[in-house]
Amino acid sequence: MPSATLQSPPDVIARDAPARTVTLADGTQVDLTALSPAELLGLQFDQEQAFARKFVAHPKRSAERAAAFAQGYDTVTAIYAAANGISGPVVMGLDRRYEQLVVSVLRGQRRAGMNPRLFEVGYGSGLLLERIRRHGFAVGGIEVSAAMHAQACAALPEARESLLLGNFMALDWSGASSASRGATQTGKLQRGGYSLCYWNDVFEHIPPDEIADYLARIHDLLAPGGVLVTITPNWHIRPNDVTGDFCPPRTEARGVHLKEYTLREVTALLRGAGFRRVATPLFVTRRHIYRCGNGFSSVKRWFEPAVEVLPFRLAKLLVRGFGLSCTIARRD
Question: Measuring CA to CA, which of 117, 165, 271, 299 is 20 to 30 A from 84?
């Protein structure tokens, strides 16, 4: 499940009630209302591991893998909601600092003469998109969960044509050249149609054999000068999924975080996809994300391996405080 990388309380909103009977990885169905919170947490850990194995067992970019992802996230999200007594969808990994960061980038693009448009990969129930739209910016995105897509469409009926459902890698590019349209209801994307792409706690959920393809497609989705904001939990404070409820610190994630990355690894992948300038926040507080230049990102990558030998609590403070879980990459 996604987790709050910069660690502040997640936003929770209630719209439609989540499913209470779910289909497990082996195809059986379970009534979640019959289970205690402890049993639900155990079931979540079991199902995250089962679905993670199922995801990577299917061939890259296959229909079987896409179907497993769609089922897996509907199931795991419903279990998580039941375990935490939440009657509506849970928005994880999002806080006001991320909204402030996105708005700051979009406003800067507007001042620079760009047409600011946000595309979110994995928009969940659409809370961030709803907030950004209130700031006066056009929004769109894609979500793999049908349940989450329905909730987002209910929250953003005026933007539903740009709220796509399905596998990001399976969508076709449209032949349109107008920068006013980035996605269509027919499931197509426009090259260069957005100025900002954002994904929060999605990177680590993507099978490692597909991450480079995702980044290349995002690069093509962005207009020249466009920005990709990536928030993904840093490997040095692993595990950041449900594994942490059952295993000690620095255990490799065993749930649907298929791979957690270091800042060095994320930077290398971004550059491999064509993003030449990769920055981090300068530093992060409980209320704000501060940016200046490239945030001394090269210095942070240089000292990052030393974090592994520090006491875990100190490592967490440094990773969060210096923004090692956030990158801001610019397309030339």
Answer: 165
* Residue indicated by tokens 């993904």: 232
The 10 Å Cβ neighbour count of residue 15 is 16
Beta carbons of 234 and 325 less than 8 angstroms apart: yes
The rounded distance, in Å, linking the Cα atoms of 277 and 293 is 10
332: tokens are 């030339």
Torsion angle (degrees, nearest 10) of CA 284, 220, 210, 70: 80
Tell me if 288 sits within 8 A of 97, measured CB to CB: yes
Q: Hey, what domains does the chain have and what are their CATH numbers?
A: 21-83 (no CATH), 96-331 (3.40.50.150)
- Under the phi-then-psi rule, with left for phi > 0, alpha for psi from -120 to 50, and beta for the rest, what region is 169? alpha
- Rounded CA separation 332/325 (Å): 23
Greatest Cα pair distance, the chain, in angstroms, is: 56
pTM for this one? 0.89
Q: How far apart are CA 91 and CA 125, in angstroms?
A: 7
Pick left, alpha or beta for residue 274 (phi over 0 → left; psi -120 to 50 → alpha; otherwise beta).
Answer: left
Gyration radius of the chain over CA positions: 19
Report whether the peptide linkage leading into residue 89 is cis, meaning its omega lies within 30 degrees of zero.
no
Q: Encoding tokens for residue 62?
A: 């296959």
CB 269 within 8 A of CB 232: no
Q: What span, in angstroms and rounded, lies between the C-alpha atoms of 312 and 332?
A: 38
**Cα–Cα distance for residue pair 296/13, rounded to 1 Å:** 36
Q: Which two tokens stand for residue 216?
A: 């290349």
Helix (H) or strand (E) holding 318: helix 312-321
Is residue 183 helix, strand or coil?
strand
